[in-house]
Every structure is written in C-alpha cells, then in structure tokens.
Amino acid sequence: MTPEELADRVRDGELRIHELEEHAPADVAAEARRLFVASETGTDLDTIGDYAFEAADAEPNIENMIGGAQLPMGIVGPIPVDGTADAETTYLPLATTEGALLASINRGCATMRAAGGASARVLKNAMTRAPVFRTGDVVGASETVSWIRANESRLAEVAESTTSHGELRGVTPYVVGDNVFARFAYDTKDAMGMNMATIATEAACELIVEETPAELIALSGNLCSDKKPAAINSVEGRGRTVAADVEIPRDVVESYLKTTPEAIAEANTRKNHVGSAKAGALGFNAHAANTIAAAFLATGQDPAQVVEGSNAITTADVRDGDLYASLTCASLEVGTVGGGTKLPTQSEALDVVGVRGGGDPPGANADALAETIATAALAGELSLLGALASNHLASAHEQLGR
Could you tell me which residues come within 8 angstroms of residue 223 by beta carbon, excluding any fewer than 6 positions away? Predict the structure, then answer.
C-alpha cells in the first residue's frame, strides 16, 4: 500500500497507528504517519521527514516513527586528557541549542591545554538494577537477606548466563519492613548496560524466589536508581564513576580566564558548595549537566540519564599560588555499543572521539568516552567559574548575541 492509502486506513479506523509496519516497510509507514498527523493537526512535517538514517535501522530505538529530530552539533577541543583508556588529545562533538555553551567549553579546553593538559580516571564501573521483594514480615526479610549474602556466587552464575559480556560485581540487600531490595551491580563493558542488567537480574530473581520466602513485586524497586535524582547514586555511583582534574598556573588563569586562582576557588566554594547545600542539591557543580547532555545527544546515549550524570562535585583550591580544580561524576552512564550509538549521526560522532564499538580490552572505549566527557565538563566548569569570578557572564552572552 502507498503512504496515502495507509494514512486513509488509519483515519478510517481500519488500522491503528502502531500497526503500519505490519503492512509496509518502515520508511513507508513513517511517511504514512506524517501524512496522517499533518492532516489531523494542520501542520507541515517536511523537515521532520528529512532524516539521514534508514527507518528500518531505527526500529529498535523508536515506536510510531514519523521522522527525525535535528539539533545543531558543534565540536570542542582538542581536549588534552590523560586517561587510563584514552591518553591522547581528542575532540568531542556536542549537540545543543544553548548558545555560548561550546564557546565556553572551548575556552576551558584552551586553558587546560595551556596548563599542560588534564588527567581523568574511571574509578568504578557498576550499572545497577534493584528489584523489590515482599517477604511477609521482618523475619522473612532477614532470612532473604542472609540467603542473598551467602549465595552471591550462585546469583552471579545465573545472572551471567544471560549475557556474554556482563559480570556481576555484587549484590547489596536493603530492608524496609517486609520489603527487601537487592541492588545488583554489573560491569557491562562497552555497553551502557541497562537492558543487560535488567535481563540478568530477572534471571537472578527467579532463583531468589525459589530459595527464599521472598515474592518478587517489581523488577525495579527504584533503589537502582534509574533516571531519577537519588542520593544512593551520588554515594555509591552508577554506570561510570569518573574524575578529571587539572592544575593551572596562575599566569594561565589570569591570561585565559581573566581572573585569579583565589577568585575562582572562592566562587566555587560559595556557589557550588554553599549554594548547592542550601538548595538541597545532589550535584555540587556549576553546570556539568550542560556538557553531559550535549555529549549524550551527540553520541547516542540515553538523554534521560543526564539526571544521574549531574551527580557531580567540582572542587577548586589554590596550591602554591596556582589553581587546582577537579570534577568527579558519580554516575555517568555511557556506552559505545547498543542503543542510540548505532544510529549513523551518533556513530560518526563516536568516530570523532575514536571510541565507536567495542574496545580492546572490553570496556576500554566506554571508559575513554566517560573520561573525555568528564574532562570536557571540567573545562565547562572552569570557564563558567572564570566568567562568574570576573563578572563576565552576562557580557559574554551579550557579545555572542545569545
């Protein structure tokens, strides 16, 4: 059937809008939906329909597809990062609609280059899934927790049988009355790993139910915690826990950031630490989510997980007259295989960083991406703190016309 015929059948109630791929190729189904939506809403969807990927290739990533969303994409760098997985200067594509953001990050990158470069390290890799069980009473809860702690190797064997890559790092049980939460943590190599962790945990839950008084209520009990602000992710981490730091000579601070190490350190303390504490914030940083969100959109990460990515703490202090600054991201959830990383635009962006696909050893590419993003985010922190300390924030936006 033609797109027009399919759209007419949807309009007449003969087909549901999600059934079109059963009657036509993916690109035809998408065009039919555009025709239907355009007629129903009186809109022009020509730009949405002008996308560069194969509709069939996007089927794992979207339902009821009508086209593609385009965002301006720019580049920052070179980013001078010495990391465990990425010991070279690289560029990072960023997709955003916020003017002045990339200019600011690039200023921070230039500052770090002039200082001799930054360092970054992935400190922990643990994607989590935390099911919740009902046990009837605290006696049953205690019995369940004791069994989980005594049988972690059995749980690992069952969980790892579902994946060729994931490894169970540990299971931490928590009790609230007759509720038992079991927080499973996995090394997911180069995958972000949420689906991997979910499937593996489901298999492990079957064993827990067989061997204990516990009844599974929900495969996710929100103690994971995925796509929600949560202190447990700030403390225990989720995905990649990664830190980046740099020491900048005083003359470089004055030349590139137009201020002093003392002024940046004070602005960081009063804004990022005291201000964030007063606000009850989980992230103690200036705007790390800005860089992380733009990197996620460009490289095919799950944008909703910027919530966890903003769990970051910026530090700044004066050392022998120079500036030391760091950014530690507790829960940066990134991957270089699976999900949106397979789409053409995002694959090209990962190629720019040099991390598309699986790494050697497994996990090296995702580590390198995490270290690059954290270092770029630190560059953004330095530049914004410099603008605030020198009273240049508003004038910078005015100068760039944003």
Answer: 130, 132, 174, 181, 183, 232
Question: Which CATH code of 3.90.770.10, 3.20.20.30, 3.40.605.10, 2.120.10.30 fits the domain covering 73-125+239-399?
Answer: 3.90.770.10
For the whole model, what pTM was predicted?
A: 0.93
| Catalytic annotation, residues | 98, 302, 397
> What is the model's pLDDT at position 394?
42
C-alpha–C-alpha distance, residues 138 and 205, integer Å? 19
- The set of residues, in sequence order, having a beta carbon less than 8 Å from that of 25 and lying 6+ positions away, is 55, 56
- Give every residue of the chain whose pLDDT is below 70, as ranges: 84-88, 392-402
Domain ranges of the chain: 3-58, 73-125+239-399, 131-218
pLDDT tens for each residue of 164-203:
889 999 999 999 999 999 999 999 999 999 999 999 999 9
Helical ranges in 69-215 per DSSP H? 101-114, 138-150, 152-160, 194-211
DSSP result, 178-241: TEEEEEEEEE-TTB--HHHHHHHHHHHHHHHHHHSS-EEEES--SSS--SS--HHHHHH--EEE
131-218: what fold?
Alpha-Beta Plaits (3.30.70)
Please check whether residue 95 is in contact with residue 106, taking contact to mean a CB–CB distance below 8 angstroms.
no
- The tokens of 61 are what? 């990533």
Q: Which helix (H) or strand (E) holds 268?
A: none
Q: Which amino acid is at 37?
A: V
Closest CA to 94 of 232, 286, 290: 290
Q: How far apart are CA 402 and CA 400, in angstroms?
A: 6
Residues in contact with 82: Cβ distance below 8 Å, sequence separation at least 6, in sequence order:
117, 118, 119, 120
Residue 82: what pLDDT?
87
